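cron nightly-structures :: item 1 of 1
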Amino acid sequence: MRFCFVVNDRREPSVEQTTTLLISAAARRGHEVLVCGVGDFTVNDDGTLRGLGCRVEATEPAAVVEELLRGRASSRALGEQDLCIIRTNPGRDEARRAEHVAALRLLERLDEQGVRVINHPRGLCRAQTKLSLLEAPASLRPRTLITRDVAVIERFLDEASNRIVIKPLDGTRGRDVFVLEPAGPQANTKQIIEVVLRRGYAMVQEFVPGADRGDVRVTVVNGRILEVDGQPAVIARVPRGGDFRSNLHVGGAAQPSGVTDAMQEAVAQIAPHLRREGLFHVGVDFVGGRILELNVFSPGGLHPSERLYGRDFSGAVIEAFEQRA
């Protein structure tokens, strides 16, 4: 099959990215792999969508990075691809925000023309901020507020029985995520709120008991928890150095974890929504049985999962993609 991976920038790969693992797994399974960035598209007068991309034949992540950095790009008709896999993350690429918006619309047209696109562009557009969490039943998530009104945030904090978490609605990788105490210094609280609101809307949530000990990332494919040989792709992300954030990019450590009955039930409840929106590959973050976030853009976690369990989770994801094409 012909696979096209769409990334933020094809010249910015990393060995430990889940995207790089997926690219190498696709090549390893014998697919023809093309990698394009969000700014690499051209639409001809006849409506043909072309991508300026790099062909990748490497089957190991380090070699994939080398090919992307040194490879020569060429223009390809994307209508000739069998599958297009969107591995972008607008929240990490503010300088190209306009390109991300345009790319999703162009790839939606590509899907309409018969090329399967995963995750579906329309579903990504609807879920491109943390708003997607509100699609989960209220019983499965913390009490949540989304606003730019400082007074509303302060009232939410005053009414909270515990600490609250405030973060940018479109944030990622633990950036500008803070915990506020109901009895904390008022001046400090206002300053933190202002920092978060500089980036737009804020998401404010009750602090879930146990969140200071980390969370659990569960990889979901086609509405089910991904498993290989009975081992689920699930990792605990544990904070370090007194930082409550467990994101791996801010120093959190990945550790083995299991799947609880509550997690299984929560995934089963959100699966119809994920399938309806075309969100085929998703990372779900849990504390206990409560969902903190649904990660639909470039969900990660496969690299530590493969390292901890010795399973080919990336190959299993590609196999699921093959069945979807």
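cron nightly-structures :: done
The chain has three domains: 2-118, 130-137+211-320, 143-206.
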